[in-house]
Amino acid sequence: LFADDPGRLGLKQTLEKEDAKVQPKVKKIRVLAEMRRRQICVMIARLPGGKETADALTHMDTRRLNSEQVELLLLNAPPLDEVQLMRKAQEEHTVDELNVWDTAEDFILSLIEVPRYLLRLQ
Questions:
Q1: Which of 10, 39, 57, 75 has its Cβ near the most Cβ atoms within 10 Å?
Q2: Residue 57 and residue 40: Cα distance in Å, rounded?
Q3: Percent of the chain residues past pLDDT 90, beyond the cut
Q4: Where does the signal peptide begin and end (predicted)?
Q5: How far apart are CA 111 and CA 109, in angstroms?
Q6: What gap in Å lies between CA 114 and CA 70, rounded to an integer?
Q7: pTM for the whole thing?
Q8: Which range is least confidently modeled, 2-11, 64-73, 113-122?
Q9: Which residues contact 1 (CB under 8 A, 6 or more apart)?
Q10: What is the rounded CA–CA span in Å between residue 106 and residue 50?
Q11: Are 93 and 99 in contact (CB under 8 A)?
Q12: Domains of the chain: which residue ranges?
C-alpha cells in the first residue's frame, strides 16, 4: 500500500543520494606505466598472492613457490629505476583508509621489502 506512494519513494531516493555523498571515495595510488602494470597483474594471477609470495620468498619456501613461479618472478623483477621510483612514491604518498596502493604497486612494494629479493630468486 505504501510502496506506491511517490512521496515516500522520493524521500528514500533523496536519503540514498545523501548517504552516497557522505561516503568518501577510496583513491588507488598508481605510479607504474600502464603496460608495466598489466605485466605485473598477469604475473600476479599466476602466483599465490602478494603477501604470501613475499613471505614464501623471504623464507625461500619451495612448497609455496614452484620453479616456474620463481622464474616468472625473476623475469618480471623490478629494475633498479623502478625500485627507486616505488621507494620515492612510498615516501611521497600517505597510505590510509582513503588512499591505497593499486594492485601492481602493492605487489612490487611487498616484493622489494624482501631483503635481497633478487638474490633469493636466483
A1: 57
A2: 17
A3: 25
A4: none
A5: 5
A6: 14
A7: 0.74
A8: 2-11
A9: none
A10: 8
A11: yes
A12: 30-121
What tens digit of pLDDT does each residue of 14-50 get?
Answer: 556 655 566 778 788 788 899 999 999 999 999 888 8
Which letter does DSSP use for residue 98 in this model? Answer: S
- CB-based contact 75:1 (threshold 8 Å): no
State the angle between helix axes of 50-58 and 67-75 in degrees (0 to 180), rounded to the nearest 10: 100
For the chain, give the percent of residues with pLDDT over 70.
82
All three cell numbers of 119 = 638474490
Strands 99-101, 27-29: pairing is parallel
Evaluated on CA atoms 43, 120, 84, 90, the torsion sign reads positive
